[in-house]
Design brief:
- The structure is a homodimer.
- The first copy, chain A, starts with a strand and ends with a helix.
- Chain A has two domains: 5-114, D-amino Acid Aminotransferase, Chain A, domain 1 (2-Layer Sandwich); 119-270, D-amino Acid Aminotransferase, Chain A, domain 2 (Alpha-Beta Barrel), CATH 3.20.10.
- Chain A is α+β, with helices and mostly antiparallel strands.
- Chain A is globular, with a radius of gyration of 19 Å.
- In chain A, strands 8, 9, 10, 11, 12, 13, 14, 15 and 16 form a nine-stranded mixed sheet that branches. In chain A, strands 2-1-7-6-4-5 form a six-stranded antiparallel sheet.
- Chain A is built from seven helices and 16 strands.
- At the A-B interface, strand 3, helix 1, strand 6, strand 7 and helix 4 of A face strand 3, helix 1, strand 6, strand 7 and helix 4 of B.
- Strand 3 (15-17) of chain A pairs antiparallel with strand 3 of chain B.
Chain lengths: 273, 273
């Protein structure tokens, strides 16, 4: 199950120059966009996050129109459910060394991937707890950047049957899953961790934060411990691929309810975006 | 001043598959090896660190002999002073997602780069102080991994005339430069930070830690503040390219002496390795 097709700067291809700073240093960002029936879901939210992130890294990306065209091209040949993964790097280095070069041209890599959404995603998944910790880094927090070794090490801990593993930082704060954000529900109100010291500001997390008030559901950003998660009325995970995912168990702790999670899931699935 | 030649898995080439996990996630390690008169300096120290790092990341790399052959091939066509940059990634992913795949074959990328050693490196350099902070991460600390966005952001702060910038963590501890380790000298004794929460265990740092006792110079690993650096008798930076580099000024603070730094520099330069 490899990528169905990849475009490098708009041209079908399978390789990138070995001096690309994405490879050399992880110097770039990415987006994982769900495509349903040929439509990229929440495309504007993905592109907005990407552009904000590139600005934060000082990557002079001016090819947003070309990127939209790449995505449209990929979506046009997508199966009924698919993923478009977009990477934008700072481009090739003509010299060695970390410092960004003047005049480097950012590179975009757009790949169309098959995906399968398992039914269990809608009926309650299991989360493990990762031993590997999330670092604390304000300069990079929130960004969906290419420095993802922590996530790789955490994901390597996902056991058979688990949807994902929960990552905590050195202060024992819950950050996220390796590839999802986390919410708890208590007395009908949502809470999810800040992403200002670690973690990724997920697009689906943003959609939930935007939509919850419209459904009359309160929501706050606050630090969560593992106990906050295991003791919650409900827990759900979010990402662009799977949407809102009710959690039935965290480690050994069953989570009893998922009413609000299912309501939010149905609402988000029904959004025409 | 691009790479003079690159070998991908031993074959001359200029590109890597776009599904390489080094590009997708920064999932790999690298080494920067100085070549002088056709000889890679401190090669065994570089290869030992690389193999230990790959084991720590769980990358099943079994091509050490082929890598040695790549390096010998690059060294044979190197100018009198050059850099061989070695990258080993976890290889290509056939599916999307952070979790490492069973059976993936690590990929090696060996590039020969020109380099110039400026005379000022031997006569005292200037270090700036980076605003961007180093994250704290035990899982990755010490490794020369491909997740180097922090170093990129710090290196972007290097001002004209500065050799490098000092990076500190959120607890105000000095970690390193963006591309060097740091030592202070007080009353004839060396001190350098631990690299167990952040930073890279530099090969030249290791050489200094090994050689100092042989010269009767004491050395300790301990946390350093910026004040410890600016108030030190001497300060020096180390990396594989420039060796031991005496520091003449840190920000606005002149460093008065460099006798021991110069002695260590001369000793390390004279080593037949």
């Amino acid at each position: 199950m490899s990528a169905l097709q990849t475009w490098i700067d708009g041209v079908p291809g399978v390789s990138v120059p070995s001096d690309d700073r994405g490879l050399q240093y992880g110097d770039g960002l990415f987006e994982t966009i769900l495509v349903r029936d040929g439509r990229p879901r929440f495309l504007e939210a993905h592109l907005t996050r990407l552009m904000l992130g590139l600005a934060r890294l000082g990557v002079p990306f001016e090819s947003i129109d070309a990127l939209r065209a790449d995505i449209a091209c990929a979506a046009a040949q997508a199966p009924s459910v698919a993923i478009i993964k977009v990477i934008v790097t700072r481009g090739s280095s003509r010299r060695r060394g970390y410092a960004p070069e003047e005049g480097a041209r950012p590179r975009r890599i757009v790949a169309l991937w098959p995906t399968v959404l398992t039914p269990s995603v809608a009926s309650g998944v299991v989360l493990g707890i990762a031993h590997s910790r999330a670092a604390t880094s304000s300069a990079l927090a929130g960004l969906k950047h290419l420095n993802r070794l922590e996530n790789v090490l955490a994901a390597a801990e996902i056991a058979e049957g688990e949807f994902d593993v929960i990552m905590v930082d050195f202060a024992h704060r819950v950050i996220s899953g390796s590839s999802c954000n986390l919410f708890v529900v208590n007395a009908g109100r949502l809470a999810t961790p800040h992403v200002d010291t670690a973690g990724v500001a997920g697009v689906m997390r943003g959609i939930v934060l935007r939509e919850a008030p419209r459904l009359g559901i309160g929501c706050e950003l606050r630090a969560l411990t593992l106990e906050d998660v295991t003791n919650a009325d409900e827990v759900f995970a979010t990402n662009a691929r799977a949407g809102v995912v009710p959690v039935a168990r965290v480690g050994e702790h069953p989570i009893r309810m998922m009413d609000l999670s299912l309501k939010l899931r149905a609402h988000v699935e029904s959004l025409d975006a």
